Amino acid sequence: MSYMKSTIGKPVKYGPPDSAKKLGAAERGGGKVVDEVWAIDAQRDAAKHDHPHDPDCWGDYVFLSQLIAWPCGGHAIRLTYYHQRCGSDSWLYGGQTSIESIPSTIKTLLEKTLNKADWFTRQERATD
Ligand SMILES: [Zn+2]
Questions:
Q1: How far is it, in rounded angstroms, from Cα 18 to Cα 38?
Q2: N or C: which terminus of the chain carries fewer CB neighbours within 10 A?
Q3: 45 CA distance to ligand 1 centroid (A)?
Q4: If you measure from the C-alpha of residue 32 to the centroid of ligand 1, how many angstroms do you get, rounded to a whole number?
Q5: Under a CB-based contact definition with an 8 Å cutoff, are residues 62 and 27 in contact?
Q6: How far apart are CA 4 and CA 59, in angstroms?
Q7: From CA 127, how far away is CA 111, in angstroms rounded?
Q8: For 57-72, what is each residue's pLDDT tens digit?
Q9: Strand, coil or helix: 64
Q10: What is the Cα–Cα distance from 94 to 52, expressed in whole angstroms?
Q11: Distance from Cα 121 to the centre of ligand 1, integer Å
Q12: Ligand 1 centroid distance, CA of 48 (Å)
């Protein structure tokens, strides 16, 4: 079964960037996904590819936004994705370097992106 399940309830933790790690920074943990929204729900139901291995086939991707609750009582939003390799029927978290920030920063970024109306009328790449 290759249906990508809900991520609500999954734990969230981050390692520090290398520059801070060198100075002894600890990881930040204890976060938890409390809500999610998927870009295209149908992509969560990607079937296992049964064609011979093809270097041009990069598998399947599914994109989502998550609301994350942190132990301090605060929240953040992460825009991220999962990947299913060609020939596999399991999803892997692909967003080790996803953007995650406080809701107001994510809101500003998304609003500014949506305000780029001409971006959304351009011809789209062949596949997604
Ligand atoms: Zn494939």
A1: 31
A2: N
A3: 14
A4: 32
A5: no
A6: 14
A7: 25
A8: 999 999 999 999 999 9
A9: strand
A10: 24
A11: 29
A12: 8
- CA-closest candidate to residue 100, choices 68, 57, 64, 60: 68
User: Distances from the Cα of 65 to the Cαs of 69, 99, 100, 103, 106, in angstroms?
Assistant: 13, 10, 10, 11, 10
Ordered by start, the domain boundaries in the chain are: 11-42+57-117
d(CA 49, CA 86): 6
- Rounded to the nearest 5°, which phi and psi values hold at 95? -105, 35
Average pLDDT, the chain: 94
Amino acid identity, residue 18? D
Q: Which single residue is written with the structure tokens 């079937």?
A: 47
Rounded to an integer, the average pLDDT of 43-62 is 91
Helix, strand, coil share (%) of the chain residues, nearest 5: 20, 30, 50
Q: Are 104 and 67 a contacting pair, CB within 8 Å?
A: no
Handedness of CA 107, 108, 109, 111 (dihedral sign): positive
The alpha-carbon radius of gyration of the chain (Å, integer) is: 17
